[in-house]
Amino acid sequence: MSLHSSNAPMPRWERGDTSRVPYGVYTDEAVYRRELERFFYKGHWCYVGLEAEIPKPGDFKRTQVGERSVLMVRGKSGDVHVVENVCAHRGVQFVRERFGNRNILVCPYHQWSYDLDGRLRGVPFSRGVRQPDGSVHGGMPADFDMSEHGLTQLKVARRNGVVFASFDHSVEPFEDYLGPTILQYFDRVFNGRELTLLGYSRQRIPGNWKLMQENIKDPYHPGLLHTWFVNFGLWRADNKSQLRMDEHFRHAAMISRKGSGGENKEVTSGVSSFKQNLKLNDDRFLDIVHEPWWGEPTVVMLTLFPSVIIQQQINSLSTRHIIPRGHGEFDFVWTHFGYADDSPEMTRRRLRQANLFGPAGFVSADDGEVIELSQRGIEQVPWHRALVELGGRGCENTEHMVTETLIRGMYDYWRKIMED
Ligand code: FES
Ligand SMILES: [Fe+2]
Fold first, then answer.
1. What is the fold, at CATH topology level, of the domain defined by 46-156?
2. Which of 14, 85, 109, 135 has the most crowded Cβ, counting Cβ within 10 A?
3. Other C-beta atoms within 10 Å of 201: how many?
Protein backbone atom coordinates (compact mmCIF):
# COMPACT_ATOMS: atom_id res chain seq x y z
CA MET A 1 0.00 0.00 0.00
CA SER A 2 2.64 2.50 1.01
CA LEU A 3 4.94 1.65 -1.88
CA HIS A 4 3.15 3.39 -4.69
CA SER A 5 1.72 6.22 -2.62
CA SER A 6 4.93 7.15 -0.77
CA ASN A 7 6.78 7.68 -4.01
CA ALA A 8 4.03 9.67 -5.67
CA PRO A 9 4.87 13.32 -6.30
CA MET A 10 2.84 15.70 -4.14
CA PRO A 11 0.87 18.48 -5.83
CA ARG A 12 2.89 21.65 -6.39
CA TRP A 13 1.86 24.73 -4.43
CA GLU A 14 2.06 28.03 -6.23
CA ARG A 15 3.26 29.92 -3.17
CA GLY A 16 5.12 29.10 0.04
CA ASP A 17 1.89 29.66 1.98
CA THR A 18 -1.47 27.89 1.56
CA SER A 19 -3.50 30.63 -0.07
CA ARG A 20 -3.56 28.77 -3.40
CA VAL A 21 -4.62 25.16 -3.06
CA PRO A 22 -3.57 22.94 -5.99
CA TYR A 23 -6.51 20.91 -7.29
CA GLY A 24 -4.35 17.78 -7.20
CA VAL A 25 -5.15 17.52 -3.48
CA TYR A 26 -8.73 16.69 -4.48
CA THR A 27 -8.20 14.65 -7.64
CA ASP A 28 -5.07 12.54 -7.20
CA GLU A 29 -5.70 8.98 -5.99
CA ALA A 30 -2.10 8.57 -4.74
CA VAL A 31 -2.44 11.71 -2.63
CA TYR A 32 -5.64 10.29 -1.23
CA ARG A 33 -3.95 6.98 -0.33
CA ARG A 34 -1.26 8.87 1.51
CA GLU A 35 -3.91 10.87 3.39
CA LEU A 36 -5.50 7.62 4.58
CA GLU A 37 -2.15 6.37 5.88
CA ARG A 38 -1.03 9.61 7.49
CA PHE A 39 -4.27 11.08 8.82
CA PHE A 40 -6.77 8.27 9.28
CA TYR A 41 -4.48 5.35 10.22
CA LYS A 42 -1.60 7.04 12.03
CA GLY A 43 -1.06 9.76 14.61
CA HIS A 44 -4.70 10.95 14.70
CA TRP A 45 -7.90 10.18 16.59
CA CYS A 46 -10.94 9.36 14.44
CA TYR A 47 -14.57 9.63 15.52
CA VAL A 48 -16.47 6.35 15.87
CA GLY A 49 -19.66 7.31 17.71
CA LEU A 50 -21.56 8.15 20.85
CA GLU A 51 -21.76 5.82 23.82
CA ALA A 52 -25.54 6.35 23.72
CA GLU A 53 -25.55 4.28 20.51
CA ILE A 54 -24.38 1.19 22.41
CA PRO A 55 -26.00 1.44 25.85
CA LYS A 56 -26.08 -2.26 26.85
CA PRO A 57 -23.31 -4.86 27.20
CA GLY A 58 -22.86 -6.63 23.88
CA ASP A 59 -24.29 -3.72 21.85
CA PHE A 60 -22.23 -2.87 18.81
CA LYS A 61 -22.15 -0.35 16.00
CA ARG A 62 -20.40 -0.99 12.72
CA THR A 63 -18.66 2.08 11.30
CA GLN A 64 -15.38 3.05 9.67
CA VAL A 65 -12.04 4.60 10.46
CA GLY A 66 -10.97 5.93 7.09
CA GLU A 67 -11.91 3.13 4.69
CA ARG A 68 -11.40 0.37 7.27
CA SER A 69 -14.51 -1.25 8.74
CA VAL A 70 -14.53 -1.30 12.55
CA LEU A 71 -16.89 -2.25 15.37
CA MET A 72 -17.54 -0.12 18.42
CA VAL A 73 -18.59 -2.64 21.08
CA ARG A 74 -19.89 -2.28 24.63
CA GLY A 75 -18.03 -4.80 26.78
CA LYS A 76 -19.51 -6.86 29.59
CA SER A 77 -18.30 -4.48 32.28
CA GLY A 78 -19.46 -1.35 30.47
CA ASP A 79 -16.14 -0.57 28.84
CA VAL A 80 -15.98 0.36 25.14
CA HIS A 81 -13.84 -1.50 22.61
CA VAL A 82 -13.13 -0.71 19.00
CA VAL A 83 -11.91 -3.63 16.88
CA GLU A 84 -11.33 -4.06 13.18
CA ASN A 85 -14.10 -5.93 11.37
CA VAL A 86 -11.73 -8.41 9.70
CA CYS A 87 -11.50 -12.04 10.79
CA ALA A 88 -8.03 -13.07 11.95
CA HIS A 89 -8.38 -16.38 10.09
CA ARG A 90 -8.75 -15.49 6.43
CA GLY A 91 -9.91 -11.95 6.39
CA VAL A 92 -13.70 -12.03 6.24
CA GLN A 93 -15.39 -8.72 7.05
CA PHE A 94 -17.75 -10.70 9.19
CA VAL A 95 -20.23 -8.22 10.72
CA ARG A 96 -22.70 -6.80 8.22
CA GLU A 97 -25.42 -5.25 10.40
CA ARG A 98 -25.05 -1.59 11.29
CA PHE A 99 -26.12 -2.25 14.88
CA GLY A 100 -26.79 -5.32 16.99
CA ASN A 101 -26.12 -7.15 20.19
CA ARG A 102 -23.89 -10.20 20.68
CA ASN A 103 -22.41 -12.16 23.56
CA ILE A 104 -19.57 -13.14 21.36
CA LEU A 105 -18.45 -12.21 17.84
CA VAL A 106 -18.51 -15.13 15.40
CA CYS A 107 -17.25 -15.23 11.83
CA PRO A 108 -19.62 -17.26 9.65
CA TYR A 109 -16.97 -18.79 7.38
CA HIS A 110 -15.26 -21.19 9.83
CA GLN A 111 -16.85 -19.90 13.01
CA TRP A 112 -13.83 -18.53 14.75
CA SER A 113 -15.21 -16.67 17.73
CA TYR A 114 -14.01 -13.60 19.56
CA ASP A 115 -14.70 -11.95 22.89
CA LEU A 116 -16.27 -8.49 22.80
CA ASP A 117 -12.81 -6.94 23.12
CA GLY A 118 -11.56 -8.88 20.09
CA ARG A 119 -9.60 -11.66 21.79
CA LEU A 120 -9.80 -15.01 19.97
CA ARG A 121 -11.82 -17.42 22.05
CA GLY A 122 -12.65 -20.42 19.91
CA VAL A 123 -11.30 -22.19 16.81
CA PRO A 124 -13.33 -25.17 15.58
CA PHE A 125 -11.30 -28.38 15.13
CA SER A 126 -8.18 -26.74 16.53
CA ARG A 127 -7.23 -30.04 18.16
CA GLY A 128 -8.24 -32.03 15.09
CA VAL A 129 -11.14 -34.44 14.68
CA ARG A 130 -11.07 -37.80 16.37
CA GLN A 131 -11.93 -40.71 14.08
CA PRO A 132 -13.89 -43.86 15.09
CA ASP A 133 -10.57 -45.76 15.25
CA GLY A 134 -9.24 -43.28 17.83
CA SER A 135 -6.80 -41.54 15.54
CA VAL A 136 -6.95 -37.72 15.20
CA HIS A 137 -7.06 -35.94 11.86
CA GLY A 138 -5.78 -32.44 11.31
CA GLY A 139 -5.91 -29.65 13.86
CA MET A 140 -3.77 -26.59 14.31
CA PRO A 141 -0.01 -26.90 14.80
CA ALA A 142 1.05 -27.54 18.40
CA ASP A 143 2.55 -24.07 18.68
CA PHE A 144 -0.67 -22.29 17.58
CA ASP A 145 -1.33 -19.61 20.21
CA MET A 146 -4.85 -18.18 20.41
CA SER A 147 -3.61 -15.06 22.18
CA GLU A 148 -1.65 -14.07 19.07
CA HIS A 149 -4.62 -14.12 16.71
CA GLY A 150 -7.32 -11.80 17.92
CA LEU A 151 -9.03 -9.01 15.97
CA THR A 152 -6.97 -5.86 15.51
CA GLN A 153 -7.73 -3.67 18.53
CA LEU A 154 -7.75 0.08 18.19
CA LYS A 155 -6.78 2.46 20.93
CA VAL A 156 -9.94 4.05 22.37
CA ALA A 157 -10.59 7.50 23.85
CA ARG A 158 -13.88 8.30 25.58
CA ARG A 159 -14.79 11.76 26.70
CA ASN A 160 -18.20 12.68 28.12
CA GLY A 161 -20.04 10.11 26.02
CA VAL A 162 -18.12 10.48 22.74
CA VAL A 163 -15.84 7.74 21.42
CA PHE A 164 -12.75 8.18 19.26
CA ALA A 165 -10.33 5.47 18.12
CA SER A 166 -6.92 5.12 16.54
CA PHE A 167 -5.07 2.27 14.85
CA ASP A 168 -1.93 3.98 16.16
CA HIS A 169 -1.36 2.98 19.78
CA SER A 170 1.34 5.64 20.15
CA VAL A 171 -1.08 8.47 19.35
CA GLU A 172 -1.00 11.35 21.84
CA PRO A 173 -3.73 11.58 24.54
CA PHE A 174 -7.07 12.74 23.11
CA GLU A 175 -7.10 15.92 25.22
CA ASP A 176 -3.67 16.92 23.88
CA TYR A 177 -4.81 16.06 20.38
CA LEU A 178 -7.62 18.62 20.62
CA GLY A 179 -5.56 21.18 22.51
CA PRO A 180 -6.96 23.44 25.28
CA THR A 181 -8.90 25.90 23.08
CA ILE A 182 -10.79 23.31 21.05
CA LEU A 183 -11.25 21.05 24.06
CA GLN A 184 -13.10 23.86 25.81
CA TYR A 185 -15.62 24.04 22.93
CA PHE A 186 -15.88 20.24 22.81
CA ASP A 187 -16.72 20.23 26.52
CA ARG A 188 -19.26 23.00 26.02
CA VAL A 189 -21.50 20.54 24.14
CA PHE A 190 -20.31 17.34 25.80
CA ASN A 191 -20.29 18.59 29.33
CA GLY A 192 -20.85 15.27 31.06
CA ARG A 193 -24.66 15.29 30.84
CA GLU A 194 -25.96 11.96 29.59
CA LEU A 195 -26.72 12.04 25.86
CA THR A 196 -29.75 10.62 24.06
CA LEU A 197 -29.82 9.51 20.49
CA LEU A 198 -32.48 11.26 18.37
CA GLY A 199 -31.78 9.75 14.95
CA TYR A 200 -29.59 9.57 11.88
CA SER A 201 -29.36 10.98 8.40
CA ARG A 202 -26.96 9.54 5.86
CA GLN A 203 -25.84 10.80 2.51
CA ARG A 204 -23.17 10.05 -0.06
CA ILE A 205 -21.57 13.19 -1.44
CA PRO A 206 -19.60 12.96 -4.70
CA GLY A 207 -16.77 15.21 -3.60
CA ASN A 208 -13.37 14.96 -1.91
CA TRP A 209 -13.65 14.50 1.88
CA LYS A 210 -11.65 17.66 2.61
CA LEU A 211 -14.26 19.80 0.85
CA MET A 212 -16.57 18.98 3.77
CA GLN A 213 -13.95 20.04 6.31
CA GLU A 214 -13.44 23.23 4.30
CA ASN A 215 -17.16 23.89 4.15
CA ILE A 216 -17.34 24.09 7.95
CA LYS A 217 -14.11 26.10 8.10
CA ASP A 218 -15.61 28.60 5.69
CA PRO A 219 -17.58 31.39 7.37
CA TYR A 220 -17.56 33.30 4.05
CA HIS A 221 -20.32 31.26 2.42
CA PRO A 222 -23.13 30.76 4.99
CA GLY A 223 -24.40 34.34 4.78
CA LEU A 224 -24.30 34.20 0.98
CA LEU A 225 -25.18 30.67 -0.16
CA HIS A 226 -27.84 29.89 2.44
CA THR A 227 -31.05 31.84 1.91
CA TRP A 228 -32.30 30.48 5.20
CA PHE A 229 -29.41 31.88 7.19
CA VAL A 230 -29.50 35.28 5.56
CA ASN A 231 -33.22 35.78 5.87
CA PHE A 232 -33.67 34.61 9.40
CA GLY A 233 -30.47 36.14 10.79
CA LEU A 234 -28.97 32.82 11.90
CA TRP A 235 -25.64 33.48 10.23
CA ARG A 236 -24.69 36.70 8.57
CA ALA A 237 -21.53 38.65 8.04
CA ASP A 238 -22.79 41.23 10.54
CA ASN A 239 -23.15 38.70 13.37
CA LYS A 240 -20.66 38.88 16.22
CA SER A 241 -18.18 36.06 15.60
CA GLN A 242 -14.86 34.46 16.45
CA LEU A 243 -12.67 31.91 14.70
CA ARG A 244 -10.38 29.71 16.78
CA MET A 245 -7.84 27.00 15.94
CA ASP A 246 -5.60 24.62 17.86
CA GLU A 247 -1.86 25.28 17.76
CA HIS A 248 -1.41 23.03 14.69
CA PHE A 249 -4.34 24.71 12.84
CA ARG A 250 -5.88 21.30 12.15
CA HIS A 251 -9.06 21.70 14.23
CA ALA A 252 -11.23 24.80 14.33
CA ALA A 253 -14.20 26.43 15.98
CA MET A 254 -16.52 28.90 14.25
CA ILE A 255 -18.36 30.74 16.99
CA SER A 256 -21.15 33.20 16.34
CA ARG A 257 -24.13 34.93 17.87
CA LYS A 258 -27.26 35.27 15.84
CA GLY A 259 -28.55 38.70 14.95
CA SER A 260 -32.11 39.80 14.63
CA GLY A 261 -32.41 39.14 10.89
CA GLY A 262 -34.26 41.47 8.56
CA GLU A 263 -32.59 43.89 6.26
CA ASN A 264 -29.13 45.33 6.77
CA LYS A 265 -28.00 46.98 3.53
CA GLU A 266 -24.31 46.24 4.24
CA VAL A 267 -24.84 42.48 4.23
CA THR A 268 -28.03 42.00 2.25
CA SER A 269 -27.78 44.42 -0.64
CA GLY A 270 -26.77 42.56 -3.76
CA VAL A 271 -26.95 39.21 -1.96
CA SER A 272 -29.27 37.39 -4.31
CA SER A 273 -30.17 34.79 -1.71
CA PHE A 274 -31.73 37.47 0.51
CA LYS A 275 -35.45 37.52 -0.13
CA GLN A 276 -37.16 40.32 1.74
CA ASN A 277 -40.59 38.72 1.55
CA LEU A 278 -39.66 35.18 2.47
CA LYS A 279 -41.67 34.14 5.52
CA LEU A 280 -42.25 30.81 7.26
CA ASN A 281 -45.72 29.31 7.11
CA ASP A 282 -44.85 27.38 10.25
CA ASP A 283 -42.52 29.37 12.45
CA ARG A 284 -42.01 26.51 14.91
CA PHE A 285 -38.87 25.71 12.90
CA LEU A 286 -37.36 28.76 14.56
CA ASP A 287 -38.87 28.34 17.98
CA ILE A 288 -35.48 28.99 19.55
CA VAL A 289 -35.08 28.64 23.30
CA HIS A 290 -31.80 29.85 24.73
CA GLU A 291 -30.07 27.18 26.81
CA PRO A 292 -27.89 28.34 29.73
CA TRP A 293 -24.90 26.21 28.70
CA TRP A 294 -24.59 28.07 25.37
CA GLY A 295 -23.17 31.18 26.98
CA GLU A 296 -23.13 34.00 24.49
CA PRO A 297 -22.83 32.11 21.17
CA THR A 298 -25.91 30.68 19.46
CA VAL A 299 -23.82 28.55 17.16
CA VAL A 300 -20.48 26.79 17.49
CA MET A 301 -19.36 24.62 14.59
CA LEU A 302 -16.34 22.47 15.45
CA THR A 303 -14.24 20.72 12.83
CA LEU A 304 -12.12 17.97 14.35
CA PHE A 305 -9.56 16.88 11.80
CA PRO A 306 -9.87 14.59 9.94
CA SER A 307 -13.11 12.78 10.64
CA VAL A 308 -15.90 14.72 12.31
CA ILE A 309 -17.86 17.94 12.65
CA ILE A 310 -19.69 18.77 15.85
CA GLN A 311 -22.66 21.02 15.36
CA GLN A 312 -24.54 23.21 17.79
CA GLN A 313 -26.81 25.46 15.78
CA ILE A 314 -29.46 26.96 18.03
CA ASN A 315 -31.22 23.96 19.65
CA SER A 316 -30.08 21.44 17.06
CA LEU A 317 -27.14 19.19 17.93
CA SER A 318 -25.38 16.63 15.77
CA THR A 319 -22.14 14.93 15.00
CA ARG A 320 -21.35 14.67 11.29
CA HIS A 321 -19.03 11.81 10.49
CA ILE A 322 -16.89 12.05 7.34
CA ILE A 323 -16.17 8.60 5.87
CA PRO A 324 -13.96 8.84 2.77
CA ARG A 325 -14.48 6.57 -0.26
CA GLY A 326 -11.72 7.23 -2.75
CA HIS A 327 -10.54 10.71 -3.69
CA GLY A 328 -13.85 11.87 -5.15
CA GLU A 329 -16.54 10.69 -2.73
CA PHE A 330 -17.43 10.37 0.94
CA ASP A 331 -20.27 9.20 3.11
CA PHE A 332 -21.60 11.74 5.53
CA VAL A 333 -23.41 10.38 8.58
CA TRP A 334 -25.35 12.74 10.83
CA THR A 335 -26.14 11.63 14.36
CA HIS A 336 -28.73 13.90 15.94
CA PHE A 337 -28.68 13.90 19.72
CA GLY A 338 -29.95 15.64 22.82
CA TYR A 339 -29.55 15.28 26.57
CA ALA A 340 -31.23 12.67 28.74
CA ASP A 341 -32.68 15.37 30.99
CA ASP A 342 -34.26 17.36 28.13
CA SER A 343 -37.99 17.98 28.50
CA PRO A 344 -40.23 16.35 25.84
CA GLU A 345 -40.77 19.85 24.39
CA MET A 346 -37.02 20.39 24.05
CA THR A 347 -36.61 17.02 22.33
CA ARG A 348 -39.40 17.97 19.86
CA ARG A 349 -37.72 21.31 19.30
CA ARG A 350 -34.32 19.73 18.62
CA LEU A 351 -35.92 17.35 16.12
CA ARG A 352 -37.87 20.13 14.43
CA GLN A 353 -34.78 22.31 14.09
CA ALA A 354 -32.89 19.31 12.71
CA ASN A 355 -34.92 20.00 9.54
CA LEU A 356 -32.44 22.76 8.78
CA PHE A 357 -29.64 20.20 8.58
CA GLY A 358 -29.04 16.76 7.12
CA PRO A 359 -29.04 15.73 3.44
CA ALA A 360 -32.29 17.53 2.60
CA GLY A 361 -32.03 20.21 5.28
CA PHE A 362 -33.26 23.72 4.48
CA VAL A 363 -29.66 24.86 4.97
CA SER A 364 -27.41 21.84 4.52
CA ALA A 365 -28.86 20.64 1.22
CA ASP A 366 -27.07 23.67 -0.26
CA ASP A 367 -23.70 22.46 1.05
CA GLY A 368 -24.00 18.93 -0.35
CA GLU A 369 -24.84 20.42 -3.71
CA VAL A 370 -21.99 22.95 -3.86
CA ILE A 371 -19.48 20.29 -2.80
CA GLU A 372 -20.62 18.09 -5.69
CA LEU A 373 -20.35 21.04 -8.07
CA SER A 374 -16.89 21.92 -6.69
CA GLN A 375 -15.59 18.42 -7.33
CA ARG A 376 -17.00 18.49 -10.88
CA GLY A 377 -15.32 21.76 -11.71
CA ILE A 378 -12.04 20.72 -10.11
CA GLU A 379 -11.93 17.41 -12.01
CA GLN A 380 -12.35 19.43 -15.19
CA VAL A 381 -9.17 21.47 -14.60
CA PRO A 382 -7.04 19.33 -12.25
CA TRP A 383 -3.86 21.28 -13.07
CA HIS A 384 -5.35 24.53 -11.69
CA ARG A 385 -5.69 25.75 -8.10
CA ALA A 386 -8.20 27.31 -5.71
CA LEU A 387 -7.82 30.86 -4.45
CA VAL A 388 -8.16 31.12 -0.67
CA GLU A 389 -7.07 34.69 0.04
CA LEU A 390 -10.03 36.27 1.82
CA GLY A 391 -8.65 37.93 4.94
CA GLY A 392 -5.03 37.63 3.80
CA ARG A 393 -2.64 34.75 3.19
CA GLY A 394 -1.69 33.73 6.72
CA CYS A 395 -3.33 31.61 9.40
CA GLU A 396 -4.56 33.30 12.54
CA ASN A 397 -7.52 33.40 14.91
CA THR A 398 -9.90 36.28 14.22
CA GLU A 399 -12.74 38.24 15.80
CA HIS A 400 -14.77 38.25 12.59
CA MET A 401 -15.78 35.88 9.82
CA VAL A 402 -14.81 37.69 6.66
CA THR A 403 -11.85 35.40 6.13
CA GLU A 404 -10.72 32.00 4.84
CA THR A 405 -8.04 31.70 7.52
CA LEU A 406 -9.28 28.34 8.83
CA ILE A 407 -8.94 26.71 5.40
CA ARG A 408 -5.41 28.08 5.03
CA GLY A 409 -4.71 26.74 8.51
CA MET A 410 -5.92 23.23 7.66
CA TYR A 411 -3.68 23.12 4.58
CA ASP A 412 -0.74 24.45 6.54
CA TYR A 413 -1.07 21.37 8.73
CA TRP A 414 -1.84 19.14 5.72
CA ARG A 415 1.40 20.19 4.04
CA LYS A 416 3.44 19.53 7.18
CA ILE A 417 2.20 15.96 7.42
CA MET A 418 1.88 15.12 3.71
CA GLU A 419 5.13 16.63 2.43
CA ASP A 420 7.26 15.25 5.24
S1 FES B 1 -12.34 -16.51 7.70
FE2 FES B 1 -13.28 -16.15 9.58
S3 FES B 1 -13.36 -18.09 10.46
FE4 FES B 1 -12.34 -18.47 8.62
FE1 LIG C 1 -22.98 25.81 4.56
1. Rieske Iron-sulfur Protein (2.102.10)
2. 85
3. 18
